[in-house]
Amino acid sequence: MLNQIGELSSRLSKTLLNAQNMCQKNGQQIFKITTRNFSSMETSENLEKIFLQDLNANKIHLGKYLICRLIQKPLHSDEINTLIIEDELNEMENVFLADIIDTTNFMPNYVYIIKEPYFVVKDDLSFIHIESPTDIETIYNHEISMWQPVEASLSIDELNLLGNQSYSNRDFSSAIKFYSLALNRNLDAKILSNRAAAYLNLNFFYESSKDCQISIDLNAKNEKAYFRLAKCCYQMRQFDQALQALENCLNLNSQNSHALRESARIKKRLMEAKTGDYDFKALINACHDKILRHDIADFISDKIYLDREKNLLAAKTGIKRGTLLLCEKAASIWYKAEHASSVSKIAKMENYKQLINRLEHDPFLLKNVYKLARDNDEFGEKIFFINLAKIKCIVDQYSFQSPPVEFVSNFKPEPNELQVNSGLWIQSAFIKHFCLPNTQKIYFNDVVMIYASQDIKESEFLTTSFVNNTDTYQERCENLTNFGISRCECELCEMDRADPLTSERDSYIVENRDRIKKLVDQDSNDVNEGLVYLEKIKHFYNNRSTNKLCLVPALNFCATLFRNKGKLNKSAKIYADMFDLSKHFHYDLAVYGLVEAINDYFLWFDMDNAKECFKKLKAYSLGHRDYFLHVCNAKIIDYENIHQLLN
């Protein structure tokens, strides 16, 4: 058996060497051209073995699998990973892996199964194309004698010792290999628990949990296996199962301090899921410290339910404004701030890749993600296979940005490094789009809390706006196509479609908005330009008494221009008008209007009007009292010193 790369050079054919050169030159382009978003939905046990010589060009070999050995470490270039493999007949071939597949644990001489291989021949380049991480599996138990590792001849104790040494060196992939070789000889509870620990350190939660469970079946007094099972269940957000495993662990050793600490943490999660009672101060402080991922449980109010026919959340009973309806941690979220070298990365695409790698080791999450697929019933018992096309569609349609939490009062906030992100929240995706929503989202990095922003009637669907409802009608329509929505039936869109002045109004806004915004950005005090722009838009709304939301940005421009001119009494009045115009259907702008009105009235020494606006803000604000105090501290000038004057 050949173990060194140098020994293989003479066996690499000229064609294969040329293929590697071409791979470096145009491999990415060819990979994209041949991409089919194909994912095998079969287990290897249900497939028939095939060899490299049996592969047909440009064909997916359904019902077949290929067993192969990795010749050298993966090469990464141009967003693809390249492997060189050989089969049992000593034939060699390239394998192109999509960069969503984590190759960290791919090692030379390891043996893999490729399910239903897609073989591509194009421009003198041949390769096996793999897009889904579940289409290539590492195997340790095979009968190919020439591929047996030298360690296979060692005793079980020696293999376990090698596994322990690798684990101590944090080489978890090698530890798994040695433990697996030992387990091929004898299913031992202790070694299973050891392998579970190695899996756990690689975030392979499901694989780890399976080993823990088998270890417990073999030895019901395996304290470590119970504890590790609890940690796996916790990471997969199976809190009830995690608590049960810890109780079993503590029954064996009631003084286990780690288990006692984990038990308290899990009980806190279960209480959050039951009551929706969260530590808001801790959440806000964590956001201040730029902690992007919070340790909390999801909460779904008993006042809402999922309408199975429409696949939408609706009110089970009448709901009062301000009620917490849903709190949810992102299934996956990607932040540019966490990746220093990702200057040109597209956040949504990077989150898709990140999600795929999580799903490979968490079938519970995968099952929940599939619920967002319109035809999720088709998966049946194959729910634990990754269907790339479905998941890509889900991420494209339901991903949103988490606005960063603000902490400093500033008329012109500096760009926030956390703004570039993309997250997927599963339960929130069952809320229908309406440009005039009845709910409001409040984000704490990867956590979103959703409140009723107005009274909601029984059986009424929950709604949220996927777009900025102060944009023009045409802009809203264009942006909605990104979410697969061709037509919005909300009251605002119906009015815009029926209004004969909509087209002319939208054209005027698009033609002049950037010019006015430029004045604002340049700290201009040319109020007349802003007022002309505002009055012209008002004119287009003469035949409407409600839903004049395109006026809100124009009011904001005028208020800022008056502020630049030092006329804070006038800017404050316009900011207050912004609140009145947007308070029913644009919570963030309504709060912004009141906050800026308070600031300008305070700086104008008009405390009576400042107090009046503060009372409105206090009555209007959604969320916990601690969050309201945070908003005041973050956005109202010198609030810490003047709050007694405002209250």
Q: What is the strand and helix layout of this fold?
A:
Elements (H helix, E strand, L loop, with lengths): L4 H4 L5 H20 L14 E3 L8 E2 L3 E7 L4 E3 L2 E7 L5 E7 L12 E5 L2 E5 L2 E6 L5 E4 L16 H13 L3 H14 L3 H13 L3 H14 L4 H13 L3 H14 L4 H19 L4 H9 L10 E2 L3 E4 L4 E4 L8 E6 L2 E4 L11 H13 L3 H8 L17 H11 E2 L20 E4 L7 E2 L5 E6 L2 E6 L10 E2 L8 H8 L10 H8 L3 H20 L5 H14 L10 H15 L2 H15 L4 H17 L3 H14 L4 H11 L3 H8 L1
Parallel strand pairs: 1-3, 6-9, 18-21
Antiparallel strand pairs: 2-8, 3-5, 3-7, 4-5, 5-6, 7-10, 8-9, 11-14, 12-13, 14-20, 15-17, 16-17, 19-20
Could you give a quick summary of the protein structure above?
This protein is of the alpha+beta class. It contains 23 helices and 21 strands.
List keywords for this structure.
single chain; globular; 46% helix; ten-stranded mixed beta sheet; 647 residues; four-stranded antiparallel beta sheet; alpha+beta
Task: Explain the overall architecture.
The structure is a single chain. The chain is an alpha+beta fold. Helix content is 46%, strand content 14%. The chain has 23 helices and 21 strands. The strands form 5 sheets. Strands 1, 2, 3, 4, 5, 6, 7, 8, 9 and 10 form a 10-stranded mixed β-sheet that branches. It has a 4-stranded antiparallel β-sheet with strand order 11-14-20-19. It has a 3-stranded antiparallel β-sheet with strand order 15-17-16. Helix 4 (172-185) packs antiparallel against helix 5. It is globular and about 85 Å long. The termini are far apart. Mean pLDDT is 89; it is low at 1-20 and 409-414.
